[in-house]
Design a protein that fits this description.
323 residues, binds phosphoenolpyruvate, alpha/beta, 14% strand, 43% helix, binds magnesium ion, globular, eight-stranded parallel barrel
Length: 323
């Protein structure tokens, strides 16, 4: 919870010099939709669908998923809802999937790797449900894939979407192909962001995983928490590279890791060029208030100085001077 009282801004916000920045909510269940709207979310920037698959004995079927996704779209009729396809493995277990123990789960079979492999059936059902929901719900649906590391993975995922669209077409089922995107969560994705951005409509940076992999510091290990910090210059440089690659390829780019919800970092992130910031709903009013104070030229200057910094300490000092 925030300490300062800040008014909720239900409307979209722009910087003092008129650049619109979309501020959206991260959520995992439809129970959270109302709260997101109440905090002034412009839409949903990360719908973590794995929660739909937890606390039950078997996965949700296609119709149940259509209903859940359409409900989110109806909650934001003027907005965008970014649904992430199933992201299990690593820190995200699902009991009935019987995930094998792995020595290095964060470097193992997780995210899109499972969807293109062991969980292919679940992936197909989920994509069918998403394409059907895109035609049914009021808002705009976007779908993104987690933990992509190679162009081959992305191409395979996009091919699955094409196949499913043809199947639905042949069966005479109503569907629409949503906007498609990739999460930038691995150093590989940051380095190949130009190739990814050329193939999709948008990128979304997952800084929780990106910081963990860039810094080789597990996200849940307190002993290395000082390393798992997105203020480290290499993480900022990875973000900068992804933003530039997205914009060079006419894709929009958002951020949905914890970093996006820190009001002390809003100016830096706007300066880096992020088009959208998605966060836990409680931080939305604070971040919207920050956006309205920003001058984009000043913010770019902060970003350039942070990108030129040698250490996290230097980055902190640059940010402290601004506040
Ligand atoms: C991330 O990795 O930053 C992210 C948003 O995904 P998750 O926290 O669900 O892994
Ligand atoms: Mg992640």
């Amino acid at each position: 919870a925030t300490e300062r009282e800040v008014d909720v801004r239900a409307e979209r916000v722009e910087t003092a010099d008129g650049r619109e920045v979309e501020v959206a909510a991260n959520l995992g269940t439809s129970a959270e939709l109302e709260g997101a709207d109440a905090q002034g979310a412009d839409g949903v920037g990360l719908y973590r669908t794995e929660f739909l698959f937890l606390d039950r004995e078997s996965p949700p079927d296609e119709d149940e998923q259509v209903e859940t996704y359409a409900e989110a779209l109806d909650a934001f009729p003027e907005g965008r809802v970014v649904v992430r396809t199933l992201d299990v493995g690593g820190d995200k277990p699902v009991p009935y999937l019987d995930l094998p123990e792995e020595e290095n789960p964060f470097l193992g079979n997780r995210g899109i790797r499972r969807s293109l492999g062991d969980d292919g059936d679940l992936f197909e059902t989920q994509l069918r449900a998403l394409l059907r929901a895109a035609a049914e719900g009021a808002g705009t649906l976007s779908v993104m894939f987690p933990l992509v590391a190679t162009v081959e993975e992305l191409d395979a995922a996009l091919e699955r979407v094409d196949e499913i669209a043809s199947d639905l077409d042949e069966a005479g089922v109503d569907y629409a192909v949503p906007e498609l995107g990739v999460m930038v969560e691995t150093p590989a994705a940051a380095l190949m962001a130009d190739e990814f951005a050329a193939r999709v409509d948008f990128l979304s940076i997952g800084t929780n995983d990106l910081a963990q992999y860039v810094m080789a510091a597990a996200r849940e290990n307190d002993a290395v928490a000082h390393l798992h910090d997105p203020r480290h210059p290499p993480v900022l440089r990875a973000i900068d590279r992804a933003v530039e690659a997205a914009h060079d390829n006419d894709a929009w780019i958002g951020m949905c890791g914890e970093m996006a919800g820190d009001p002390e970092l809003t100016e830096l992130l706007v300066g880096l060029g992020l088009d959208e910031l998605s966060m836990s709903a409680v931080t939305i009013p604070d971040v919207k208030a920050q956006v309205e104070e920003i001058d984009t030229a000043d913010a770019r200057d902060v970003a350039d100085r942070a990108l030129a910094a040698s250490t996290k300490g230097d980055v902190r000092r640059i940010l402290d001077q601004e506040s």
